[in-house]
């Protein structure tokens, strides 16, 4: 599903306040569904009890290379990682048999389209 203005920051300070205090939020969909600074405030106040993120809005420059020998340059992510009730994974939710088969199928379809002189399929990211 493409992210648009209707879904950007769907989880924000207002929606977090409507949750039961101590609620658990898990986002494996899109990083920009959640307004990260609002998550931090909700975690600090206890309004949000637990947080699991497999996606992060600024993940492209963080997770897809080994940067273990470099200091973390993202202060927002660094703050999230200080909470004992937060877990952040490097966008692994896509790593299923079905998702990998779909990726392979799309890749092969695009190669065939390219070879035949047709436009490649558009994929929303």
Automatic annotation (TrEMBL):
Keywords noted in UniProt: NAD, Oxidoreductase
Q: Which organism is it from?
A: Pseudomonas solani
**Name the record gives this protein:** D-isomer specific 2-hydroxyacid dehydrogenase NAD-binding domain-containing protein
Q: Which InterPro entries match?
A: D-isomer_DH_CS, D-isomer_DH_NAD-bd, D-LDH-like, NAD(P)-bd_dom_sf
Is Transferase included in the keywords of this UniProt record? Answer: no
PANTHER family on file: 2-HYDROXYACID DEHYDROGENASE HOMOLOG 1-RELATED (PTHR43026:SF1)
The stretch of residues making up the signal peptide is: none
Is Oxidoreductase found in the keyword set? yes
Q: Which residue range or ranges hold the D-isomer specific 2-hydroxyacid dehydrogenase NAD-binding domain?
A: 1-93
- UniProt similarity note: Belongs to the D-isomer specific 2-hydroxyacid dehydrogenase family.
